[in-house]
Write a structure and sequence with these properties.
The protein is an alpha/beta fold. It has a single domain, classed as Alpha-Beta Barrel (TIM Barrel), CATH 3.20.20.140. Helices cover 43% and strands 13% of the residues. It contains twelve helices and eight strands. It has helices at residues 12-16, 24-29, 35-45, 56-61, 64-77, 94-103, 115-118, 126-135, 149-156, 191-198, 215-223, 229-243, and strands at 3-9, 49-54, 81-83, 110-113, 139-141, 164-166, 182-184, 203-204. The strands form two sheets. It has a five-stranded parallel β-sheet with strand order 4-5-6-7-8.
């Protein structure tokens, strides 16, 4: 089974009429960022399903609770979607919403947390990580060239039992630490080196829909890896299914 560990969707009404305060790149991708288009992408690329994360455009437009309700309803409607919620680390109510997401909405994790784009300090994520541990669910952090690796490592060092997924192969984080994380492959560089450093049991196939120009090419990167077929199956879906109970 092939599971995409990193996709985003928007409510159709936001996709059709993106808010004016969206970053410019979102205005390009918003119209295609719907559950129906994601399901069609899966069909064309022979992907069986995937994790759906709230898209930034929705977070800017709706209340957090409404966004999480939308993700939960989308996962109910499309059985091959695995819903993840999102909370604002700056709000004292964040952990209460996490509890609602898991216990009432049946969401399976949280993310994608992006300190730069979402305007919060990594240090404010302590209570969120602790709550994710308590709820036994994974949590996804965005990584790119702007990420403060030292700040991130200082934050998570004491939470080694947390199920932390570093998006985009952690922008090379695996070269800077021996701490144990999961890494999704979407827009990641040096995949072969990452495999050697962290092992196939910590790598998750991902496309970052709708931003990947050709999700099938992202899948081909995994299929071409020179690893045993059983390990390839784990990267393509087995690993992520172990994380989302």
């Amino acid at each position: 089974m092939i599971i995409d560990s990193h996709t985003h969707i928007l409510p159709p009404e936001i996709a059709k009429n993106p808010p004016k305060n969206l970053p410019s790149f979102w205005k390009k991708f918003a119209p295609i960022c719907t559950a129906d288009n994601l399901i069609e992408m899966f069909r064309k690329a022979n992907i069986d399903g995937g994790i759906v994360l709230p898209a930034g455009a929705a977070i800017l437009s709706w209340s957090i609770e409404k966004v999480n309700d939308f993700i939960a309803n989308s996962a109910k409607e499309h059985k091959n979607l695995i819903g993840f919620g999102w909370v604002n680390p700056n709000l004292e109510t964040a952990t209460f919403e996490m509890e609602r997401c898991v216990k009432e909405l049946k969401l399976k994790g949280f993310g994608e947390f992006h300190p730069v784009a979402q305007n919060f300090k990594l240090n404010s994520c302590k209570s969120i990580i602790e709550k994710a541990i308590e709820l036994d669910v994974p949590i996804i952090f965005h990584f790119d060239e702007r990420t403060n690796f030292i700040e991130f490592l200082n934050l998570v060092r004491t939470y080694q039992n947390a199920k932390i997924i570093c998006a985009h192969l952690g922008a090379g984080l695996f070269e800077k630490t021996d701490l144990s994380f999961y890494y999704d492959t979407s827009f990641g560089k040096n995949l072969e080196l990452a495999l050697k450093r962290v092992g196939t049991d910590r790598i998750l196939f991902g496309t970052d829909f709708p931003f990947a120009k050709n999700p099938k090419l992202e899948l081909e990167k995994i299929l071409r890896l020179e690893v045993p077929d059983e390990e390839k199956k784990e990267i393509l879906g087995g690993n992520v299914l172990k994380l989302v109970k």
